[in-house]
């Protein structure tokens, strides 16, 4: 299980997160929603180890990791696709995928090659392997970014705004791929999402973050979207 325990975080003297508690079980899909600027990206970066905690802890597979760097968390089974995808635009698609392999360096049984399932889930990764990532469309880049995260063979996949700027047909493809990732690979997914239709179709549970505080949580199947829409409106 991935657990966030009373986590607070700040930028300099400006606090952003205040005692956040959140958990994601194995192979579960959870969505984190809220208005822009409430701390969602900061929370994801804090979980991944890209931003320090000022209080509280992060537990990964039963181990406290809040003081561990991001690469240690990646080797422990945590993967992150940031908002904006974080690809290397001047490297090819194949070279971007290869960047995920170092996370396997301490896993004795791991094969140091790109899993075939990545190409099965996202054929674009094979079809455009030699093309520079920066020349792809937004939807194609998102598929490559998720594929690169899967190369690390994660147990928990963090996605920050995976549908942002992507056409509806590609959103459907990404949803289908993520569903397979959960079912076939048993990978849990925590996603930040503004598009409630996507979030409610994919996730089993939700958390609402408002001004750095979790103000509501529940099951998507039991909570109409209209009941949480107020948290998304400006």
UniProtKB/TrEMBL annotation:
UniProt entry keywords in alphabetical sequence: Amino-acid transport, ATP-binding, Nucleotide-binding, Transport
Coiled coil regions, renumbered to chain: none
One matching Pfam family: ABC_tran
Gene3D superfamilies, per the entry: P-loop containing nucleotide triphosphate hydrolases (3.40.50.300)
Superkingdom as given in the UniProt entry: Bacteria
ABC transporter domain segment(s): 2-233
One example GO MF annotation: ATP binding
Entries under PROSITE patterns matching the protein: ABC_TRANSPORTER_2
TM region positions: none
The family this protein is said to belong to: Belongs to the ABC transporter superfamily.
Name of protein: Urea ABC transporter ATP-binding subunit UrtE
Organism: Deinococcus antarcticus
Species lineage: Bacteria, Thermotogati, Deinococcota, Deinococci, Deinococcales
Gene: urtE
